[in-house]
Every structure is written in C-alpha cells, then in structure tokens.
Design a protein that fits this description.
Blueprint lengths: L2 H13 L5 H13 L1 H16 L4 H11 L1 H8 L10
Length: about 80
Amino acid sequence: MGIKDFFIKKAVQSQLKNVPKDQQEMIMKLVENNPELFTAIASEVKALTKSGKSEMSAMMEVMKKHQAELQKAMGAPQKQQRPF
C-alpha cells in the first residue's frame, strides 16, 4: 500500500466512526480494492460542494453517477435499465 492509499484509508476511517464495525470493514475493503474510484468520488463531491451544493446533495449526485462502478466493486448484480 502506497502513502496515498494509506491517507485515503485513514480519511475514510475517520468518516466511518459512527458506522457499525461490520459495515466499516466492508467499506474499507471496497476502498482498499478500488482507491482510484473513491478518490474520484471524493474529488467530485468536493467540487460540487465548492460550487454551492450541500454535502448530502453532492454525495447523492456523485454516488448515482458512479452507481454501476460501485455495484461492480461490491459484487452486486447490475440492474438492467429500461429504455423508457
């Protein structure tokens, strides 16, 4: 693990202090396996909050945008989207 990955892991851990331990472990494993995805998500959320969106709104927008990647990272089957 590189220094960048170490800091990403520590930043995520600090945000998860109120999350149940089993969920913390699942999220940390996702971050360790896909640090680039979570770095991208964090930077997009930061950009949206700087432009005036609330953190919750920015997080929801970015998570929705990266939904397929997150589902793939979690091993969840992806839903087929209807054409209309």
